[in-house]
Amino acid sequence: MQTKMAYTTRIAVLASAAAILMAMELPVIFMPGFLKLDFSEIPAIIGAFALGPLAGCLIVFIKNLIHVSNTQTAGIGEMANFFVGTCFVVPAAFVYQYKKNRAGAMWALLAGTFSMTLMAAVLNYWVLLPLYQKVLHFPAEAMIAMGKAGNPFIVDIKTFIVFAIIPFNLFKGIVVSAITLLVYKKLSPILH
After folding, report:
1. Are the beta carbons of 54 and 61 closer than 8 angstroms?
2. Which of 13, 84, 131, 172 has its CA 20 to 30 A from that of 35?
3. How many other C-beta atoms lie within 10 A of the C-beta of residue 192?
4. Structural domain tally of the chain?
5. Distance of CA 137 to the CA centre of its chain
6. Residue 142's domain spans which residues?
7. What is the DSSP annotation of 177-189?
8. Residue 84 sits in a domain of what CATH number?
């Protein structure tokens, strides 16, 4: 049984690692310039697997809290990252709790990827893109134009969701899952 101090320390270390990884964004070809890949969910999912869903959620929250001090999106990007990241980490952690082996991890990461992708589509359509338009005065036409520059199938907000948001989140989920599968068992003894 771990102490409260050990639990808190592990979360703090993983959240710090996640915040550093969040700052290292990479552009993804065929995607709008503002959709950038980062690997900050890896420490969160590792923490969620080792310490439970709440720990994963806290890691995602803390990394975004750290990142918001340097925001260019009035906090909307960090809010989006928190909600979407949580939709990846929490379902994956719950699935992994029932089968803590490689197959269980694969099913957990698959569940997390699909949950994240679905929720990213819903949240972007109903909440996040309208917030960008209202708060940052970033017109839908500009988002569509940025999307169309990378993918000619993007012609409106719905096709932006289908051809940018969904593929981006599927890609991110696959990449994060693959790296997690490679490193989790090596890091697991340190976290336990």
Report:
1. no
2. 13
3. 9
4. 1
5. 25
6. 4-191
7. HHHHHHHHHHHHH
8. 1.10.1760.20
